[in-house]
Amino acid sequence: MEKRVSIRRDSRNKEFVIPILVLLIIVLSGFYIRINGLADLGLGFDEPIHIYAAKSILETGGPTLPSGKKYDRALPFTYSVALSFKLFGVNEFSARLPSVIFGTLSIILIFFIGKSFFETKVGLIAAFLMAFLPFEIVWSRACRMYSMYQFFLVLGFFAFYKGFEDNNERSKLSKNSLLYRIPVLMDWNLNLLWLFFSGVALYIAFALQTQAAIFYVCVLSYLFCMFIISFINKGFRQSLGTKYFLSFLVLVILIIIGLAIPDVYRFAKRLYEFSPSWTKNIRISPTAHFNFLISSHMFPVMAFFIMGTIQVCTKVNKAGFYTLTSVAITLFLHSFFASVQRPRYIYDIFPLILLISAYAMYNFFKSELKRLYAVLDKYLNKYQLIKKLSPVLLAFMLVTSFLYISPGFRNAIRIPSLQAYDFGGEYNVQWKEACQYVKNHYSPGDVIIASIPLAADYYGCGTVEYNLNNGEIDQFRKVEGNRFQLDAFSNTKAIVNLDDLKEVLLKNPRGWLILDAQRFQNPATVPKDVREFITKNTLYHTIKTDGTIFIFSWGKL
Length: 557
Hints:
Blueprint: H1 2-35, H2 47-60, H3 75-88, H4 92-117, H5 120-132, H6 134-139, H7 146-165, H8 192-208, H9 214-234, H10 236-239, H11 243-260, H12 262-273, H13 288-293, H14 301-314, H15 318-336, H16 350-379, H17 384-405, H18 407-412, H19 431-441, E1 447-450, H20 453-458, E2 464-467, E3 485-486, E4 493-494, H21 498-507, E5 511-516, H22 517-520, H23 528-537, E6 539-541, E7 549-554
Parallel strand pairs: 1-2, 1-5, 2-4
Antiparallel strand pairs: 3-4, 5-7, 6-7
Helix pairs in contact: 1-4, 1-5, 2-3, 3-4, 4-5, 4-7, 4-16, 5-16, 7-8, 9-11, 9-15, 14-16, 15-16
């Protein structure tokens, strides 16, 4: 009897210890890839905004930019950067460390979601995909809120399902609870603690990025779909008493009441109509996100996602259907109704895509490996050690072959030396090298024009007086008595057309233009006639960089 108990205990320990060890290896590997060479990346456009706002928190107590503007977007993330600065000093590594931490936490989170929704091995596969796919990595290495936002949105997504659909006996309302005495709630099996936890996580996600509101549309869609399924199975009358219909009705009423409030309606309208100046030459396409998801560095994730979608439906997996609904609704809204399309706007649901893909991978390999194990069992009876090691060897062979055939996974270990923009991340620019060159050739009185003044200022290029970047022209401020409009972030004078540029060059005998390639080559940020004038009438300086930045000068050096 004791021997049987010991065997069962050993089996349980094995089932617990091995997955945890595998997860630990995955998490540590993912963390290393995210933190390796973190300080070597050039600054992207939005990173200096958080850096200066975080510095201001330490200096003045509030997130104020050099222009005097309070930067209250994604405040939880900015405060996390400020804390990192306080602990480790003001530098690029500290600025990006919060993103690394939340990107790593997301690997752990998706494991537990996969384990809860499907199976432990599904969680491990999903964690593996999260750890090594470049799209996940690049935003975990940027001083921007997307990594933190993804974590809290996915956490809220998971907590809602646990609170709303968890059928475990322990999750039911307590019989001593006042809510239990309400007849309609007695059989709902709600876990109010998980639902409260979901509300907190989603509130933080919304504070980081307002597009988190889309998740409420996903919940509505899921509730409606479950009501339709209930209607088909139980009939209309019984379906009206289900938690799906009543919850759907309550949420719809709350949305109507909310939109009836003028401030809420204006806020929702502003979100819907959001279209910054830098998007004016970007074509909106219903297939934009689809094309990104089927790009080479995503192979073979989307192939398995299609398989997983079919399997979720055929196996009638409720958690999988909830996941698919969240993915489908979000992609649909971003593809057909969004006025701005960028890969980062679907970064929040990307772990859910990986979850479905992992589910398909598990099912596929499980069925195929059964046949393979049968063959091994037949031919390796005499070689017990090889037979015992065969699952490990097979897993190793599958992982290594998977890494080899997938461009995305091959590039993961090279991320520090690659351009994040190629994988849906920010456009990193070598401002440090450019500013060092300018400082070495700078003379007192030289005027500096930069496409991202805060980045140039951070690396000590000198006093940046002018800004050449019309991507934020809708936020420029017109000051009475000032010939030039002022940039909302840096308070530098904005050059918006060729006349402005000619006047600056005419009034200043010497100066420098430090322009990142992404903005300099984009007609939405630098007009074509301005770009042509610069290339023909100023001196181009060749420096040893990766081509992400251009340096021009005028006057005798």
